[in-house]
Amino acid sequence: HGVEGRAWDGCLYLTQLANMLFYLPPLLILLMICGIAIPYGIAVSRDDVTPLLPFISDTGARSPESCIFALFLNPAAFVAGTIMFVRYKQLQSFEALVTRLHTVNKLSYYIGLAACFGLLLVANFQDLADSRVHLVGALTLFGGGNLYIALQTWVSYRTSQQHFYLRLFCFVCCLSVFVVGLILQLMAVAKLPNRADVPKNCTTVEAGSGDRPWPGYWPDCLPGYDLHMAAAFCEWALATTFAFYFFFFYFDFKLLSFSLQLQPLNLFLLNDVYTSPTNS
């Protein structure tokens, strides 16, 4: 009876935790805010970035802000992956009712996990440490995030349609600022002069390779400054819209109800193990 009672208590505890999964989206947003706002404040106070619209990655490129950047964004990637898994399991109940939902559901889940892996790369390979890996992570995060949102918007339309038009608006905004921001940054980088031609009064950092500088602290004396600032605005808008979209899962998960059941293979054998004198 003791083993059975402990198993039942464990089931009740896990069920209570499972029925609180709607707190995951707010937790993700809180981690994102802390992982961006705290490094930004430290970087500005140390004069590592300009206060006006630095790239988010630039706020966590130097120590000690890079440590805090990774400290919050690593668990944010885990929470985001958990949200995607819960959403994947939730949509499985609709797969028999909606054509192609099984394929789209599984595809969006794997794409979402790839985006989470991109977030891990961004958090742990800062721009000044390894700009190439960081860039791959950023493209995986934002590109995969856009694909995940696009597929989830389609799923929302084909299933409950809860907040569908708000989700569609978020997707259009995400895709627009991602494409525009990427083009603007590429245009800004193309305007950078060779290292030998950089004005001596311009402060740049060591990141990048080849003849051209890749400044994290992008001063207005460098060509492409206006384009860079516009691209940075797009990145901030993209991160904000991502967070806003994931908050909709709060309402989806509020509708979930879980029931967990623990079934030992042989309850009598377990009782013998706990009561046997040879195991005391």
Structural account:
By secondary structure, the protein is an all-alpha fold. The chain is 67% helix and 0% strand. The protein contains nine helices and no strands. It has helices spanning 2-18, 24-45, 56-59, 65-91, 101-124, 131-158, 164-190, 225-254, 267-275. α2 (24-45) packs antiparallel against α8 and α4 (65-91) runs antiparallel to α5 (101-124). It is elongated. The two termini are 18 Å apart.
Helix content: 55-70%
Quickly count the helices. Answer: 9
What's the average pLDDT? 79
In total, the number of strands is 0
**Residue share in β-strands:** under 5%
End-to-end C-alpha gap: 18 Å
In N-to-C order, the SSE pattern is HHHHHHHHH
> Which shape, going by the Cα principal axes?
elongated
| Structural class estimated from helices and strands | mainly alpha
Main sheet properties: none
Uncertain runs with pLDDT below 50, 5 residues or more?
1-14, 205-213
